[in-house]
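In the previous lecture we treated proteins in isolation. Real proteins rarely work alone, and many bind small molecules. This record shows how such a complex is specified: first the sequence, then the SMILES for zinc ion.
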Amino acid sequence: MAIIAVIWRDCTPLFWKAVRILEIPAFVLVFDIFHTNHPDFEHEHWRMLAIERREYILNRLRKEGRVQVRELSQELGVSHMTIHRDLDYLSTQDDRVKKVFGGAIMERPYPPEVGKCAMCGKPVPTRTAISLQTFSGERLEACCAHCGLLLLETRDDIVSGMATDYILERVVNLKAAVFLIESDVVVCCSPSVLCFGDEEHARRFQQGFGGEIADLDEAKKQVVFHMTLS
Ligand SMILES: [Zn+2]
Ligand SMILES: [Zn+2]
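The predicted 3D structure, ligand included, written as tokens:
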């Protein structure tokens, strides 16, 4: 699927933001009207857009490692000169950004943003990550469902949680997730707890690798039981 759009020039950064979020290819024709009518307003307006534009360029650099002036100028509906100025600015702000002929590169890729498990301190693997939201708006991350369930048990201020489906790597609501406890697949903490968005997937996985299927409450009880010494 692709989007073909005709948009007013001032809307282009917003448009590209939307396209980036949706992750679909898009082709765009940009037109520019009313542009020189209100110089004061325009000045304010464009200053704001420059921030968005630079953020967009920086994101592209992080993702792809390089950008081209020609391409960016078309995508964002601004002149080559504007993009050159943006790249100059970015290279003064971030020494990883280097201008090269026709564009810019980011010298070293950003390290992957790994959080630390709020329970055990281990890095959080994307495959098993759990994210919990507290009453005060704080976000807690857990390395896997094992630690996520222990956090749920030890803290009383958690209002919602998201888990990662072990097969599809999709985010699922912790409340609706199906857990497979103590299967032969130990990817993170032990006893192993894997999450699935679909009970059928959990059952099939269980046929191959054993373990017990549980809902959230039962899984929490099981983990706490396994971790209690007496
Ligand atoms: Zn942990
Ligand atoms: Zn873990």
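Summary for your notes: The pocket of zinc ion (ligand 2) is lined by residues 143-144, 146-147, 188-189 (CB under 6 Å). DSSP finds seven helices and twelve strands in the chain.
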